[in-house]
Amino acid sequence: MNKTHLGHTARKRFGQNFLNDEHVIGEIVAAIAPKEGENLVEIGPGLGALTEPVCEEVSALTVVELDRDLAKRLRHHPFHANKLNVVEQDALTLDFEALLSSLPEPSVPLRVFGNLPYNISTPLMFHLFDFANCIADMHFMLQKEVVNRLAAGPGSKSYGRLSVMAQYYCQVMPVLEVPPHAFVPPPKVDSAIVRLIPHRTPPISVNSVNILERICAQAFNQRRKTIRNSLKDSVTEEEILSLGLDPTARAETLSLADFGQLANFVYNKEM
Ligand code: SAM
């Protein structure tokens, strides 16, 4: 299989699968709809498949690239070098609030997008959720299965910790499915684009997001058990009943509001 594209040999450790289908690229850029004056940030620009058409629309774009060779290529881009603010760094450790403060219009929230390296996509989304208040929206290419998990509701097989936490922070909208042959080298799985819009006001009021995360993790780590069992280190059966919830229910049937209620109860009990 050919792993060299535009003179660059794809590095597996950096999750490099480069987009190589003009039609798909056009659809992704149309979904992002970049506009002049926005604080656009691309994560993992690679060889510029999305970077270049976005630069056709706007005069400034920040790109965050970990691969030193690719960052260098972008700094020396023949047409767009003067539009690009190249941040050569691991996006997982980037302070997006500080990045926004360093831009000419720091009051305009970030629009983040990228064809993400699949090996870091979930931790990267959790990292970005910490900066939700300085982000207007995000468009990401992910494994289709991850997009299904992000968007899933109670009762679905895909529903889990990622669904609850993503939906606490963001409105989740699947946008487009992308087959493996749109990439070089092709990944082994189907991909999809998702749009995430951080809520200005969270859909539920939670005293401690850490406790919400902990309760979700406990409940879904043993998703086949009843919550009476999986949550026994945090709440008793009587306490679950007092919240109007069924102790014999399983995690996959609880809504975001139910998890919020459990988390707030545990917060009041422990704090
Ligand atoms: N945007 C390009 C495209 O669509 O063809 C490349 C996408 S490729 C799936 C992922 C890109 O993310 C690569 O360029 C890779 O070097 C970069 N990358 C991998 N890990 C990264 C990290 N931790 N922080 C920033 N960029 C990273």
Automatic annotation (TrEMBL):
It is found in: Cytoplasm. S-adenosyl-L-methionine binds at N17, L19, G44, E65, D90, N115. The keyword Transmembrane helix does not apply. Pfam families: RrnaAD. Its EC number is 2.1.1.182. Gene3D superfamilies: Ribosomal RNA adenine dimethylase-like, domain 2, Vaccinia Virus protein VP39. It catalyses: adenosine(1518)/adenosine(1519) in 16S rRNA + 4 S-adenosyl-L-methionine = N(6)-dimethyladenosine(1518)/N(6)-dimethyladenosine(1519) in 16S rRNA + 4 S-adenosyl-L-homocysteine + 4 H(+). The keyword Mitochondrion does not apply. Its main location: cytoplasm. Belongs to the class I-like SAM-binding methyltransferase superfamily. rRNA adenine N(6)-methyltransferase family. RsmA subfamily. HAMAP family: 16SrRNA_methyltr_A (MF_00607). This is Ribosomal RNA small subunit methyltransferase A.
